[in-house]
């Protein structure tokens, strides 16, 4: 596999890339990943993140100070309202910030 050698990737990686080609291209086109992203795991409840982000934008527009725990609490509340079995963690808040915010600010 000359392509693997040329790009310094394991031989097992190329078939995975080819198999997931459409999914990877869509994620790239939707700007869901930064160029440095190595894994393509998406949020399991995208509707939940959209709802949390809508709340987040409203809170920011009203100059409400937002911390990680505040965002986690609201995400848990919204998840319960949407009947999702979801417990937001500090790691989820960090990934949420990476996925949803570019210029918005969430304090730790």
Folded structure, characterized:
Keywords: DNA-binding. The protein has about 110 residues and is an all-alpha fold. It folds into 2 domains: about 1-40, no CATH class; about 45-100, Arc Repressor Mutant, subunit A. Helices cover about 60% and strands about 0% of the residues. It is built from 6 helices and no strands. The chain has helices at about 1-5, 15-20, 20-30, 45-60, 70-80, 90-100. It starts with a helix and ends in an 8-residue tail after the last helix. The model has no long low-confidence stretch (mean pLDDT about 80).
Topology:
Blueprint: H1 2-7, H2 13-19, H3 21-29, H4 46-61, H5 68-81, H6 90-100
Helix pairs in contact: 4-5, 5-6
Order of helices and strands: HHHHHH
CATH topology of the largest domain: Arc Repressor Mutant, subunit A
Q: Specify the biggest β-sheet.
A: none
**Number of separate helices:** 6
Q: Runs with pLDDT <50, length 5+?
A: none
Helix content: 55-70%
Integer count of domains: 2
Beta-strand content bin = under 5%
- Let me know the number of strands: 0
Category by helix and strand content: mainly alpha
Proper CATH architecture of the largest domain? Orthogonal Bundle
Question: How would you describe the shape?
Answer: elongated
Please provide a brief summary of the model.
The chain is an all-alpha fold and 108 residues long.
């Amino acid at each position: 596999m000359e392509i693997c050698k040329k790009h310094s990737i394991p031989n097992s990686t190329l078939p995975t890339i080819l198999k997931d080609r459409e999914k990877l291209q869509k994620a790239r086109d939707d700007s869901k990943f930064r160029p440095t992203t190595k894994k393509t795991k998406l949020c399991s409840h995208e509707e939940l993140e959209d709802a949390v982000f809508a709340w987040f934008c409203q809170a920011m527009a009203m100059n409400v100070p937002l911390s990680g725990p505040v965002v986690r609490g609201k995400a848990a509340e919204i998840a319960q309202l949407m009947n999702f079995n979801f417990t937001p963690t500090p790691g989820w808040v960090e990934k949420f910030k990476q996925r949803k915010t570019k210029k918005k600010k969430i304090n730790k």
